[in-house]
From TrEMBL:
Source organism of the structure: Albidovulum inexpectatum
Reactions the enzyme catalyzes: tRNA(Trp) + L-tryptophan + ATP = L-tryptophyl-tRNA(Trp) + AMP + diphosphate + H(+)
GO cellular component entries: cytosol
KW Iron (keyword) present: no
Residue ranges, compositional bias (Basic and acidic residues): 191-203
Subunit organization: Homodimer.
Protein's recorded name: Tryptophan--tRNA ligase
């Protein structure tokens, strides 16, 4: 039976990239009636230092945004990772399965640690085994993510395979990354070769889900582009990363394909396309940020939802952790 697990770091406000690459698709999976488990991965967030008050705030705000975007805590499990201790516990076991060489090849580690690896936290290096624990702890079969997380899901498969092999069991199912839609890699508005990211120092590079309509319109108006009109066909976007990015964003928000966006806007300049895109982004994003803001007025209710989600998550995770401990050979006497 399919079971979906995915997570988002509450290490800042969510961006349009998080929305199109993840959250919007989380809602679609829930609507398809699949079992869905969504986690705000606060343990992952502290792999780089977080101000404690901001982390609390960002976790609640991310939860509010999930609810506002259509995650229904009755049909999906929504919780924050640190409330289910089994994540950290299984992660330790998987730390002993994963190999240094595999971890060293992770591009996110290389990007985030940069040249100064000696000064990166051990947690940042071990990040992918915690992510593998998140997924394997639920025997999840499908993991909807943006393009940038594909390598981590593939590593999760390698870790599951090695665990099963080393202990001679058929215990962890191999999860499939699910990378779908027109905007699996939303790019920076300032540089079409860089990913849109909440950690980019320039706020102009991204659209935050909390941006007001004027800010959104201004950021899109100023987004870097080339001077050519939009092409009629996808081939014409090949060497135009900024133009391609804006077309992909439009397609994803309008639930259509990039080609049908070009059918409508091909031959037109950005003077026409950008205002249309800004209007669409505002139309889709503003109701979510307004509703999230409304929900944030009652943080006790948000905390209650996360707590209840954590209990339901734990009920699935705990038996799987216990079986993993048995397989490994730990004495279980209570
Ligand atoms: P995070 O918090 O960086 O991003 C959350 C989700 O948003 C997607 N995403 C994007 N998609 C398209 N374009 C972008 N510019 C963009 N930026 C981010 C990410 O691909 C991701 O799906 N390691 C994960 C969190 C995680 C997780 C997990 C995911 C922890 N445990 C278990 C799945 C399953 C991360 O840092 O995502």
């Amino acid at each position: 039976k399919p079971r979906i697990f995915s997570g988002i770091q509450p290490s800042g406000g969510l961006t349009l990239g998080n929305y199109l690459g993840a959250l919007k698709r989380f809602v679609e999976k829930q609507e398809e009636g699949i079992e869905t488990i969504y986690c705000l991965v606060d343990l992952h967030a502290i792999t780089v230092w977080q101000d404690p008050d901001k982390l609390r705030d960002n976790t609640r705000e991310a939860a509010a945004t999930f609810l506002a975007a259509g995650i229904d805590p009755k049909r999906s499990i929504l919780f924050n990772q640190s409330q289910v201790a089994a994540h950290a516990e299984l992660a330790w076991v998987l730390n002993c399965v994963a190999r240094m060489g595999w971890m060293n090849r992770m591009t996110q580690w290389k990007d985030k640690a940069g040249k100064n690896r000696e000064n990166a936290s051990v947690g940042l290096f071990a990040y992918p085994t915690l992510m593998a624990a998140d997924i394997l702890l639920y025997h999840a079969t499908h993991v909807p993510v943006g393009e940038d997380q594909k390598q981590h899901v593939e590593l999760t498969r390698d870790i599951a395979t090695k665990f099963n092999h080393d202990y001679g069991v058929d215990f962890f199912p191999l999860p499939e990354p699910v990378i779908e839609g027109a905007a699996t890699r939303v790019m920076s508005l300032r540089d079409g070769t860089k990913k849109m990211s909440k950690s980019d120092p320039s706020d102009q590079s991204r659209i935050n889900l909390t941006d007001d309509p004027d800010t959104i319109a201004q950021k899109i108006r100023k987004a870097r582009t080339d001077p050519e009109p939009l092409p009629e066909s996808l081939d014409g976007l090949k060497d135009r990363p900024e133009a391609r990015n804006l077309v992909n964003i439009y397609a994803a928000l309008a639930d259509t394909t990039p080609q049908s966006v070009l059918d409508r806007f091909g031959g037109q300049g950005f003077g026409v396309f950008k205002p249309a895109l800004a209007e669409l982004v505002v139309e889709k994003i503003s109701p979510i940020s307004a509703e999230a803001k409304r929900l944030m007025a009652d943080t006790a209710e948000i905390d209650r939802i996360l707590g209840e989600g954590a209990q339901r998550a734990e009920a699935i995770a705990q038996p799987i952790l216990q079986r993993a401990y048995d397989i490994v050979g730990f004495v279980r006497s209570r």
